[in-house]
Amino acid sequence: TETTAPAADDKGSDKKIVLGFSQIGAESGWRDAETQSIKDTFGSDAQFELKFSDAQQKQENQIKAIRTFISQKVDAIALAPVVESGWETVLEEAKAANIPVFLLDRTVKVSDESLYTSFIGSDFVLEGQNAAKTMMELLGADKKVNIVELQGTVGASAANDRQKGFQEIVDGNPNYKIIKSQTGDFTRAKGKEVMEAFLKSDGKNIQAVYAHNDDMALGAIQAIEEYGLKPGTDIFVVSVDGIKPAFEAIRDGKLNVTVECNPLLGPQLKQAILDFKEGKTLEKWIKSDEDVYFGQKAIDALPNRLY
Ligand code: GYE
Fold first, then answer.
1. Atom of ligand 1 nearest to the CA of 186
2. Which of 140, 194, 236, 241 is deepest in the core (most CB within 10 A)?
3. Residues whose CB falls within 8 Å of the CB of residue 232, separated by 6 or more in sequence, listed in order
4. Pick from 122, 129, 307, 295: which is nearest to 210 by CA?
5. Mutation test of ligand 1: which of 62, 84, 105 has the most ligand atoms closer than 8 Å to its C-beta?
6. pTM for the predicted model, two decimal places
7. What is the mean pLDDT of the chain?
């Protein structure tokens, strides 16, 4: 009888699944946590090989990376798209090469939904709504509140939809008004800079800050302190993400609320790729479960935060 083991290649048993991941950059604590999650998940699983590319915030670099992945004939592409528009051509190229594309954490606007396999990420409209609702709940819906908004990267789905959801709720209450809105590019440094300008022009007229991510809120908190006011008391601050430094700021009374957004997407991405390989039908949107944190609940949760 035959006892010879089949050549490894026959069964494909030691042929790795090659994943190309085009990451946006390293603008926030949230993104660093996501990068780590992807590296941990795929680095610790011998069936996979990860090709990681950092776009340094530039869409053109992401498009180049995807083209490189296509020419390397990777088995799957993961893309965290810095902005929503401008992806049609390169996604068509991936589709023509039969390579599935998984959108990670931000979405794209395309006329043909078959240009990507699944979007794995959060409901940003809901996050924006939750930020506004919690602000009204804690400050009182009948109080007059002038809000300044620190927006995320211009053209990013996370910025567009967080603004949309928040605005929807604010529009339903004549006491609440967004008086200034500007991008802080999801970074702490820019968040601080923009907040300084807001304080300079509107100072005592600002009752609340809505930041599209925690890093910008942390920058704004610094600006408020340097201006001589107390963040969390004189000016209410709410942001999105739920990174550890945000929980610490809540504990210290400087941040009022953080709306959670899960960056630990590695395991879900891995499952999606394996399901796809087995021919299973995937959800078009693989959503994360998320919470809203403030007060004692945030303090209690701090020791167990994973990012
Ligand atoms: O909220 C922000 C990051 O795309 C959901 O990007 C992500 C956002 C996140 O830089 O901190």
1. 10
2. 241
3. 221, 249, 252, 253, 254, 255, 256
4. 129
5. 105
6. 0.94
7. 95
Q: Is the CB of 23 under 6 A from ligand 1?
A: no
Is residue 193 within 6 Å of ligand 1 at its C-beta?
Answer: no
* C-beta neighbour count of 2 within 10 angstroms: 5
- What is the rounded distance in angstroms from the CA atom of residue 82 to the CA atom of residue 105? 10
- Overall residue count recorded for the chain in this entry: 307
DSSP 231: B
For 191, the token pair is: 């968040």
Distance 128 CA to ligand 1 centre (A): 13
What CA–CA distances, in Å, run from 107 to 27, 45, 86, 159, 205?
A: 18, 27, 12, 11, 35
- Strand duo 292-294 + 257-260: pairing: antiparallel
The residue to which tokens 């050549």 are assigned: 7
Residue pLDDT, tens place only, 219-267: 999 999 999 999 999 999 999 999 999 999 999 999 999 999 999 999 9
Contact 265, 38 (CB under 8 A): yes
Q: Which 8-state DSSP code applies to residue 156? A: -
C-alpha closest to that of 286 among 86, 78, 84: 78
Q: Which residues have CB under 8 Å from 197's CB, separation 6+?
A: 182
Specify whether the CB–CB gap between 195 and 148 falls below 8 A: yes
Mutate to test the pocket of ligand 1, among 124, 213, 268 (most ligand atoms within 8 A of CB): 213
Strand spans (E) along the chain: 17-23, 48-54, 76-79, 101-104, 118-121, 145-151, 176-183, 208-211, 236-241, 257-260, 285-287, 292-294
Q: CA angle at residue 206 from 205 to 212, to 5 degrees?
A: 155
CA dist., res. 82 & res. 22, Å (int): 10
Query: 36 CA to middle of ligand 1, Å?
Result: 14
d(CA 76, ligand 1 centre) in Å = 23
